[in-house]
Amino acid sequence: MTVSIVIPHWNRQQLLIGLLDSIRQQKLPDGVVVETLVVDNGSTDDSVEVARNLGARVLRLSRNEGVSRALNRGIRATDGEVVVLLNNDVELAPDWLGHLLQAMKDENIWFATGKTLDFEQRGLIDGAGDAMCRGGASWRLGHGKLDGPEFALGRRTFFPSATATAFRRTFFDRVGLLEEGFFAYLEDADLGLRAAIEKLAGMYVPEAVAYHRGSATSGAWSSQTVQRMTCHQLLLIAKFYPIGMILRYAHAILAAQLLWAGLAISRGRGGAWLHGFAAGLWKFSRVRRASKQVRGKAGGLRAVLNQAEAEIFRVQNATSWDSYWKWYFRFVSRPAESCP
User: Fold this and answer.
1) To the nearest whole number, what is the mean pLDDT of the chain?
2) For the chain, does the N or the C end have fewer beta carbons within 10 angstroms?
3) Residue of 188, 69, 90 lying closest to 139 (CA atoms)
4) Residue-wise over 142-159: b if at least 16 C-beta within 10 A, else e?
5) 3-state class of 60 per DSSP?
6) What fold, for 1-88?
7) What is the rounded end-to-end Cα distance, in angstroms, of the chain?
8) How far is the C-alpha of 222 from the C-alpha of 33, rounded, in Å?
9) pTM across the whole model
10) CA 135 to chain centre
11) pLDDT tens digits for 156-173?
12) Which phi and psi angles does 308 have, rounded to 5°?
């Protein structure tokens, strides 16, 4: 079996050294061959030479086309039965890939994602899988929390993370490639909502550990990050929520988006939030018209979002409450799945 690893990259050549070295150190099951493709988004440093010297194939783009388009180019340019998407700012434990492939021996598992820990403080969770609340906001489960038993249990999920996830190639045949209208951020949430519509579940595999530097290229609270996340949250609602869901979840949507605005303002990014909100409103109707067919198949999405929000509540309640989620659940009633 061939595993195709696709890495979107733009500058920061030093990030590739640790990642590609960790790929070469993977303890592979018998019969597994790995090919690594770095999709270079027009880097101006020596990234291309570094990648080639470390054994990766390079697909060189003339300019920065964004994360989603780079990933799609990479998926199309490879032919492995399993496709692994990796951020350039992660490093993998030696048994990371082996654990994910073991989980995917179950033919009902369409993708597998592991536990990511903070690169610098390795006792802290970077993400134990992803989830999305009914209000349209996504969260890396457990982000910033101390690693513990609550993150050690595997579970089914519909939300892959483009940070570090293995997919069956046939997954993309069923749901399509990543949303290229999302230059970066929440492209994996869009993919997860489509997976939920098609009922293609994945697995969170806590034994598969990776270490993530987190927004090493763009910056966690850069203006571009806030602007794109604000815009894309609105566009996810436009694309996937039928009018009945928008009306039913209006209170949750209002709470999630206003709290996100408050968080952005508190980080000095009020202007970026405003630009992103305006862009989302400007594109809302056009995206909604173009995605009518998608919403026509979204009948089971309510249950998936309820379950995902219940998982957010469970993690927050089992650890410590972040201010965003504390206020969100004060404004919004707990989903039924989280009730004892």
Assistant:
1) 94
2) C
3) 188
4) bbebebeebbeebeebbb
5) strand
6) Spore Coat Polysaccharide Biosynthesis Protein SpsA; Chain A (3.90.550)
7) 44
8) 38
9) 0.94
10) 17
11) 999 999 999 999 999 999
12) -65, -40
